[in-house]
Structures are given as C-alpha cells and as structure tokens.
Amino acid sequence: RKENFDSIPDLEFNPIRAKIVQAFFDKRNLRQESDGLADEINFEDFLTIMSYFRPIEMNMDEEQLARFRKEKLKFLFHMYDSDCDGKITLQEYRNVVEELLSGNPHLEKDSARSIADGAMMEAASICVGQMGPDQVYEGITFEDFLKMWQGIDIETKMHVRFLNMETIAHCY
Q1: Smallest Cα–Cα separation from 39: which of 51, 52, 22, 53?
Q2: CA separation for the pair 9, 132 (Å, rounded)
Q3: Rounded to the nearest 5°, which phi and psi values hold at 86?
Q4: What residues contact residue 62 under an 8 Å CB cut-off, 6+ apart?
Q5: Using CB atoms within 10 A as the burial measure, which of 1, 39, 48, 55 is most buried?
Q6: 57 is a domain residue
C-alpha cells in the first residue's frame, strides 16, 4: 500500500515523492491494459516496478540497451503525464517543476512557473521546430519525450535505494 512507502529513507525528503509513489501504483507501469491507479500492489507488481530501476547489464547489446532505455523513459513519462492522456501538458509540467522546486525557500511560485514555461518552449522548439504565431503546442508526446532525453544518461541516473547499507567495521 502507498503508506508502506513512508519508511523508505531515500524517498522521505524527495520533493516529488508523491509522484514516485504514485508511479508504483500506476497500472500503465504495472504493464496492465488499463489506466488508473491500483489500490495496492503485490510482490510481483513491486518487482515489475523495480525492474525499471535496475542497472545496465554489461552484456546488453544495442537493441537490448535501446529497449531498456525506452522502458525507463516510459516510466518517467507516466510520472509527468498525470491524466494518462498520452501528453505532458504545460500544466502537468508546471506541477512537477513546482514540486521539484518546493523545497527552495528563495524561489517563488511565479519563478517556478517561468522555469516550466521556458522548458516547455524549449521542448516545443526541439520537437516541432519553428512554430507559426497561430500554432499551439499541445504538449509533449512520448515520441517528443524520447527526443528530449536523447544523449542524457538516464540508464545510470534513475534508481531508488531501499536499504540503508552503511558499512560497519568490525574489529576482533
């Protein structure tokens, strides 16, 4: 259940903690056919979600690595696409940026909004190119998301540590 995630040390102070926990219960990430959230997950579901956070295996070929990367990015995309419509809208992106920056007492909500707006304009220029004055960018599709993350090493950055494994020296 969602409340079981309260005891995970690395998530305790993460500003997007709620989004990460929600992603564990997102049926799209559980590889189910439907959208929405599961009330609880079983051990197999938990392992399915944890598979998105596994490290790269050294013997992966290019095709396996590309599939592995795409799975991780799909998981991340689902975290941003909170209404499950297949697009990250400006408002959804603003919400994430505001959550990420919420711990900074020196940054006002308007500043976070400006950062999100600027990032969305950057996304539009990467994905659509030069837009006409009457053209509206509806939001980031998964294909756009893949373009934006090209060249960024998501494979080694997306992880969650569930145990506090402090090394203790024992002298006898």
Answers
A1: 22
A2: 48
A3: 85, 10
A4: none
A5: 48
A6: no
| Residues composing the chain | 172
The values of phi and psi at residue 140, to 5°, are: -85, 120
Same domain, 3 and 68: no
CB 2 within 8 A of CB 25: yes
State both tokens at 92: 């959804």
Q: pTM, whole model, 2 decimals?
A: 0.76
12 domain-assigned: yes
**Tokens describing residue 2:** 């969602």
Q: What is the pLDDT of residues 48-95, one digit of tens each?
A: 888 888 777 788 888 988 888 898 899 989 988 988 899 998 888 888
Q: Which two tokens stand for residue 80?
A: 């941003």
> In this structure, what token pair is assigned to residue 142?
């998964």
Residues 48 and 67 in one domain: no
